[in-house]
Design a protein that fits this description.
Layout lengths: L1 E6 L3 E11 L27 E7 L8 H18 L3 E5 L15 H16 L3 E4 L11 H8 L19 E6 L7 E7 L5 E3 L2 E5 L4 H18 L6 E5 L6 H8 L2 E2 L15 H8 L2 E6 L8 E4 L2 E5 L16 E11 L3 E6 L9 E2 L5
Parallel strand pairs: 3-4, 4-5, 7-10, 10-12, 12-14
Antiparallel strand pairs: 1-16, 2-15, 3-15, 6-7, 8-9, 11-13, 11-17, 13-14
Helix pairs in contact: 1-2
Length: about 350
């Protein structure tokens, strides 16, 4: 278990996240393309709880049976965890399986992967991954489509690399004008990083500038944000995930190399300079679900959720659960991390690699 603390004057946020794994199958339903006003606001519940369920790498569109299995797992996990928000960290659809003929490949898969949130009336947010835009819809078209869903909080980002860069603010239970939690969404796209077209995608320089600008705006509006917790979500892991595995104590499973960009654009340096983001959650590597601390920032993989695509080889499909707790306190903001005992995630020191 690990903790970090910063001074504050209003409250503390406690966060516990764990990996849940469950395989229970039920019949799937059919989704509809619905639009309308969002029925929920993102706000800490009375009592100070806010729970995020991270789905990653759903990979719809490869096989009908696998799609059914994935939807059933999503629905079961949502009913078990009862999250306040689901975050899908990329590759919801295997766009590379498009036959180049169908004019509704992505839309049909979108209806399937959003159906569990519709049936359970659960708010969610989408980030694009490596394969989502390889079919018949662009990133802009996908994000604008998803924003029409009645339970989606997704936003399209124009004039910046990637179509799914945005911030979701979770309001304090004590002060609705003040965000107690900021959820940063970053679009790492598929291929190409800082001019290197052979690299996996990354957070580009203009996205870093956007992050720095938005951080300054938040600070100007809400002060130094010492009483606000910031976490980030993205699809492709940062290069620092690799350094952390090699050099730091970690927990969880590493079943493949860290498929990070070939170019380090300096996003982690920007995070350390801004001193706001305390944890980063990624996907992309289906056989990895490890996490740990790098320079005081927790870097964590989600658990591969979907039955499409390869893996996971050494553990079951599942999800990552983030539990935040807002409590009035004049002293500290604490983050507690604890892998789930039922998941039997291993801990290791660098020397045991």
């Amino acid at each position: 278990q690990s903790t970090w603390g910063v001074k504050q004057t209003k409250m503390k946020i406690q966060m516990i996240y764990l990996t849940l794994v469950l395989l229970i199958l039920k019949p799937a339903f059919t989704n509809e393309d619905l639009a309308g006003e969002k029925p929920f606001k993102l706000k800490f519940r009375d009592g100070g709880a806010f729970t995020v369920l991270q789905f990653t790498d759903l990979h719809y569109g490869e096989d009908e049976l696998k799609d059914v299995q994935t939807a059933q797992l999503q629905e079961k996990l949502i009913k078990q965890v009862q999250p306040d928000l689901v975050v899908i960290t990329g590759d919801a659809v295997s766009g590379d399986f498009w036959d180049k003929k169908s004019q509704a490949f992505f839309r049909d898969s979108w209806r399937k992967f959003t159906e569990p949130m519709l049936l359970t009336q659960t708010p969610y947010a989408l980030i694009l991954g490596s394969h989502d835009t390889e079919a018949d819809m662009s990133g802009e078209q996908i994000m604008k489509l998803d924003a029409r869903h009645p339970f989606s909080f997704s936003q399209y980002s124009a004039d910046i690399s990637g179509a799914s860069n945005y911030i979701l603010q979770v309001q304090s239970q004590y002060n609705e004008s003040h965000p107690a939690l900021n959820l940063w969404m970053f679009d790492t796209q598929g291929k190409g990083c800082a001019g290197n077209q052979d690299s996996f995608g990354c957070i580009q320089n203009d996205q870093i500038s956007w992050y720095e600008q938005k951080s300054a705006e938040i600070k100007q509006k809400h002060g130094d944000s010492s009483d606000t917790t910031h976490v980030a979500f993205m699809h492709i892991p940062l290069e620092e995930y690799m350094y952390m595995w090699n050099e730091k104590p970690v927990y969880g499973n590493k079943g493949e190399d860290v498929a990070c960009p070939q170019v380090n654009t300096g996003f982690m340096s920007a995070v350390l300079n801004q001193k706001n983001i305390k944890a980063v959650f990624a996907g992309h590597d289906h056989n990895n679900d490890f996490g740990g601390f790098y320079e005081g920032v927790e870097l964590v993989y989600g658990r591969k959720t979907g039955f499409g695509g390869y893996g996971p080889d050494d553990f079951n499909n599942g999800a990552r659960v983030l539990k935040f707790k807002e409590v009035k306190d004049p002293k500290t903001c604490l983050l507690y991390t604890s892998p789930s005992p039922r998941d039997r995630q291993k801990s290791r020191m660098p020397s045991s690699a």
